[in-house]
Amino acid sequence: MRGKRNFVWAVGCILAIFLLGGPFILPNFWTWIIIEIMVMSLAAMSVNFLLGYAGCLSFGHSAFYAVAAYTTAIMMTRTGMNQYQVLLLAPIMAAILGALIGLLVSRLYAFYYAIMTCAFAMIVWSIIRRLPGLTGGDTGIVGIKFSGLLNGMTNIYYFTLVVVILCGLALWIIGNSPFGWSLRAIRENPDRSAFISIDVTKQRFLALVISSFFCGIAGSLHVVYSFGAFPELAFWTKSGDFVTICILGGINSFLGPIVGSVVLIMLETMITSVTLYWPMVLGIIICAVVFFMPEGIMGFVKKLGWEKVNELKT
Amino acid sequence: MFFQVANLEKSFGGLKATDNVSLHIKQGDICALIGPNGAGKTTLFNLITGAIKPDAGKVIFKGEDITGKTAREITRKGIARSFQIVNVFPMLTVYENIMVAVLSQKRMSFNFFHPAKKMAREEIINHLENIGLAEQADMLAGQLSHGNQKRLEVGIALAMKPTLLALDEPTSGMSVEEKGEILDTIRKIIKMTGCTVLLCEHDMNVIFEVSDYIWVLQNGRIVANGTVSDIKNNELVHRIYLGGKR
Predict the structure, then answer these.
(1) Which of A148, A302, B86, B178 could form a disulfide with A309 if both were Cys (CB 3.0 to 4.6 A apart)?
(2) Do B90 and A188 touch (CB under 8 A)?
(3) Burial of A95 (0-12, 13-18, 19+ CB in 10 A)
(4) Gene Ontology terms, cellular component aspect (chain B) (predicted)?
């Protein structure tokens, strides 16, 4: 037990040093990769807020991600709006879209929910492509310049780090509030939940709105580090990435999406540099993980006897 | 009248599961609903608690018409139920099962910021002690024995602080000793909370032991009603339910 605790402390300290000193310790290439991982973690955490707590599998989060990214890109290139206001407006737009979709899907369960949310993502994707005047069509919007705190790799890195940590904390607090527990009750047994006076549809609706808001923050951070917004962000495979990350990391753990995005993006980066057939290699690895660690990496860690992990359960 | 059902009807296809049922419950009574398999007991429970909507008739609770309201609204008004087939939150611990009910009862479901595990601890532990599951508080509900799951089932209903508690076969699938224990528990709780009870049960010994008033259901109709001694002496009830002549 003591050895384990020391090990966790050691790993934690090394991670903290890397995270805090990132741009000064790591080569530029890896700094950008870590920024990408952080943004992906936030998006995946927002997906897991629905999946892990409320039991709703959404394939529509690419829509929220893209709507926030495009809001950021359009407002930055076409209006003189303050960049911080833009970064606040973007997730609100995503949450409004989340509310609209939520009105229609909150009564649905299991694969009906997944398919409907996926359909809405595809609608958003096609709208983005059909409005070249506003969205730049297939080429998207590129060359977006931010200033001040959002200018330069080091600034972007620390800005992203702070925002992602704050959002993670917020999701943790909401997840462990009575609201979060009512979502778990719904996940476990929606029928019985109604008999303890939980408004099942309303809670699931609110969960989607909250989730889309945080996914929107990730979407606008995407623009900050990639300087552009592209239609692929809305394509359903982007949602597929988020869901894959959650499953890979473990949907029953709060840290699952973070671990998942670290593993997936690291693998992707390293395998891409070795072989052109990286999707195939990645596929095999994911199959192996799902087969041997059905509860994801965090589930596997728990099985190894790390009981403390239990306290992080969704 | 505390609780009243008037001319309630429900059909499933060609089957009249509830056929012109009228009954009433006095406040503070333990009222039993008996009848052979397929008599429509659970259907009547479902109609009363909002799980399904009646085709016709009225359900009146404390002078208010609650016919056709949703399960959530009816529970909020003070009618909580337990289920014949165990219906708990399997991957949550026993403590968490009671916690979600207690927090919902306190209308906390829209509190986004307070750590739930630190709220209403005493009340939750109190409930756990009352239903005799304090020692199993940290076990997953799905891993409890059947008997303990049935206890939890009743505990979740009680956490809603009902004024009318509807128990759908709380002892089904239990051994004789377990039945005795859970009945003692239920009686203790009823005495403590003073809630009115509508009990649906198969075991006649259980019924005769605990109830103040009995309604007999057959083929979706009320065929007899009365006190324990009335029912014990009722020829019709003997023929259809207690098996043959005395």
Answers:
(1) A302
(2) yes
(3) buried
(4) plasma membrane
